[in-house]
Design goal:
alpha/beta, 3-stranded mixed beta sheet
């Protein structure tokens, strides 16, 4: 059984982190079911365990939080769906690489519901979209934009943190960091690609494709929470 939780409004990052950690501990203890939590944050930057100080180019623009997840700097804010994934790898196979591949496959299958082709690139974390209509990079490399970020943490083989997918965030807010330490390529969103997708549309696609990646039914339970913080 997997709980699907949707929070309305904007959820403060520290509140979300505390709730995630508590839920992950309860899952590890066997006192709570796994959960997928869908929410939005107010504008902020998070620093993963590999974040380089030089990649925070505008440190005073938004609050900055140490995320204690893998990866480097990323942005969260309104119009971006954050998907916190609290799943028990003790019963899903203790293989981090396979788990990340399943997260990537989940994002790609979700984007496919909107006829968007998401792709994975060696050495570049996240999910990318080809932009042949844009000029190539100076070295001739075709332009690609990032549409989804992935960063997880495991404790007692229970995951937390997870995925963010850009629906309609302010793409200018990414300018205060070097997203995931990658220069040259850009950031895009479903609306930036010309698709009139809402957050509710994306949530439906995420639930519909979850079983494709993880072999579970999303019908276990669904709850809506009020804004937290």
């Amino acid at each position: 059984m997997v709980d699907w939780i949707v929070s309305d409004g904007l959820t403060g990052y520290e509140d979300a982190l505390a709730e995630m950690e508590a839920r992950a501990a309860a899952i590890a203890a066997g006192t709570a079911p796994e959960a997928v939590w869908l929410l939005e944050h107010p504008p902020l930057y998070t620093a993963g365990t590999s974040a380089r100080p030089a990649d925070l180019t505008d440190p005073h623009r938004f609050p900055v939080f140490k995320a204690r997840r893998g990866g480097q700097y990323t942005y969260h804010g309104p119009g971006q769906r954050v998907i916190y994934v609290m799943l028990d790898l003790n019963r899903r196979g203790r293989d981090i690489r396979v788990f990340v591949q399943r997260l990537e496959a989940w994002v790609i299958a979700t984007l496919d519901r909107f006829n968007v082709t998401g792709e994975i690139r060696d050495g570049r974390v996240g999910v990318w979209v080809a932009r042949p209509e844009k000029p190539p990079l100076p070295d001739g490399t075709p332009r690609e934009d990032k549409i989804a970020a992935i960063g997880i943490r495991l404790r007692k083989w229970v995951s937390f943190h997870g995925i963010s997918i850009n629906v309609e965030p302010d793409l200018g807010h990414f300018d205060g960091i070097v997203p995931c330490g990658i220069t040259g390529h850009g950031i895009t969103s479903l609306v930036d690609l010309g698709l009139p997708v809402t957050m509710a549309d994306l949530d439906m696609a995420l639930k519909a494709t979850f079983a494709e990646a993880f072999g579970d039914s999303p019908e276990a339970s669904a709850a809506t929470r009020p804004r937290a913080g």
